[in-house]
Design a protein that fits this description.
Layout: H1 2-5, H2 13-26, H3 29-62, H4 66-87, H5 106-129, H6 136-143, H7 145-155
Helix pairs in contact: 3-5, 4-5
Length: 160
């Protein structure tokens, strides 16, 4: 809908509504329904990914020793990685549910959460357990998350 309206000027809100209505009426009903079904599926899978991320946070709150935290995160990473790999047949384009970022397939969600849990475990071990690194860039970004988001939104075309 954005492309047919790009570059045009409208006198008032009614003209914009009329143009939008005309464009939407030109879309076949089954294609419109299919696009909303894809959006609903993507939202459901993002909820699954969010809940799996909350698992990492709950693990941090509930378990007091670093060994139990790392054990649970690494076990979760292993299980989700194997499950995601089994769903995609351990290849990019084969299997029951191929890994597809554009469609946010279930295998994509499982594999990305497994990689995130692995990275969390590694950084937790390096920063908090062994104290080899102070975690400087990560702590600053974590304490200024809104500034990072706004900065990215404003300057995303200015930086490489």
């Amino acid at each position: 809908m954005h492309l047919p309206m790009k570059g045009k000027r409208y006198a008032d809100v009614e003209a914009i509504q009329k143009a939008c209505t005309g464009i939407l009426e030109a879309i076949p009903g089954n294609e419109l329904k299919h696009s909303f079904d894809l959006l609903l599926d993507r939202c459901a899978l993002s909820v699954v990914q969010t809940l799996l991320g909350a698992y990492a946070g709950v693990t941090l709150l509930v378990h007091s020793t670093w060994q139990s935290r790392l054990k649970r995160w690494l076990l979760g990473a292993l299980l989700l990685g194997l499950l995601g790999g089994a769903l995609c047949g351990f290849s990019r384009e084969n299997g029951i549910i191929p890994v597809n970022k554009n469609l946010w397939s279930l295998s994509f969600v499982f594999v990305t959460v497994a990689l995130a849990l692995l990275l969390l475990s590694l950084l937790y071990y390096v920063i908090y357990v062994r104290q080899w690194c102070s975690g400087y860039p990560f702590t600053e970004c974590g304490m200024n998350a809104i500034i990072m988001y706004v900065g990215h939104t404003v300057m995303h075309r200015m930086l490489p």
